[in-house]
Design a protein that fits this description.
alpha/beta, eight-stranded parallel beta barrel, TIM Barrel, 15 strands
Length: about 375
Amino acid sequence: MKLDFTNSELQYPLPGFPRLIRCQRIILWEEIGRDSRKLSTSSLLLRQSFPRWSGKLVISYIQLENKVQFSALKKQESEHLPLKLLLARHLWGVDQSNGFTPYIDHWRSMGYEALEGSSRTVLDASLLRRTLKREKFGWIAQVFSNMFVPGGTVQQHLLSLRSQIDECFEAEPLFFNCHSGSDAWSGAEAEDFYGAVLEMEKEIGVALSHETHRARYFANPWNTREILNRFPELKLTCDLSHWVCIAERLLQDCNDIIDLCAAHCHHIHARVGYEEGPQVPDPRAPEWSAHLEAHEAWWSKIWNAQQARGFQSSSLTPEFGPPPYLHTAPYTQQPVADLNSICDWMAQRERDRFHARGGTVRDARGN
C-alpha cells in the first residue's frame, strides 16, 4: 500500500499525544497481485490513535469519493524515516548500596537512555523514581504476575499484575515488561489470562510486553505460537536465549515461529543463550560465535519486522545477568567475566549493527 500526500499540514505535539495530518488530496495505491486501483479524495483526516507512549500509528478515518470509510495501517513513514534505537540498561546485578549516582555518567556515556527494572526488586523504589526524573532517563518497568511463586490461578496472576502496574504510574514508564502467566497452565487458562491482560492494557493505556521467559507460559516456542495466533494484538519481549535452553537447540526448526514473534515483538532482551543454559559464559569468546550470530540474526529479523510495521523506534536491553546466570569458577565462585563489560560490549555491538543497517539512536522520549 502506498500513500501519496499533497498539500499536507503536519502538527507534532508532545510524544504520546495525537498528531493530526490534514491533506487536501490523497492518492492511495493498493497492490493486489498484478492489479492496482487508484483512489482519491478531496479531504482526509488522519489521527494518531495509540496508548500512551506506545507510538502505534493508525489511519482512523478516510472518506473516499464513493463515501466508503475504512481503516488501514499507516506505513508511509517507515519507508522514509529510519528506525531509531533506544538502548536500556537493566538494574539486575547492579550494586545499589550507594544508590545509582556512581553509574549515571558511565551509563550515559555508553548511550543508555532508559533503565529497566522492577520497583519491587530495587533497594529503594523512591530513589529510583527520583533518579529517573532527575537524570531524565526513561523507565521500562518490569512486573511479575504472581511474583516468583510457581503455579497460581489466572485470577491470582491478574491481581498481582495489576497491583504492580498501578504502583508504577507515578514514574510514567515507557511500557511494562511482563513476566506473565505460568508454565503449568493449560491452554484454556492461558487464553483466559491473556485475553484479560489485553483488556487491562486497553484500560491503562500503556503497552504490556510479555517476555519469553522460563517458568512462564511463553517459556517455549510452541505455547507462544498458539497464544499469538489466538491474540494477534499481543506484544512480546523477545528473549530467545530462554528458548535455546528450553529446546536444547538453536531453534533451527522454529523459523516460522520466530517470524511470528518478530511480527509481535515490542522489546528485545539481547542476551545469548546456549543449549544447556540461558547465558553463555562470555559472548565475546570465539567458541560462542555461532550462538551469537544466531541470536543476532533473530534480532535483525525483529528490526526488519518493526520497520515494516511502522515502528518509529526499537528498544533493546543487553540483559546479561549476575551469578548464577554469569558462570563462576568452582570453589572460589569468582565470575569468569566482568558483567558490566559484557553488557556494555553487547550494547555497543548492537548499536553498531543497528547503524550499519541505516538506523539511528534516539533518546528515551522519542527525540
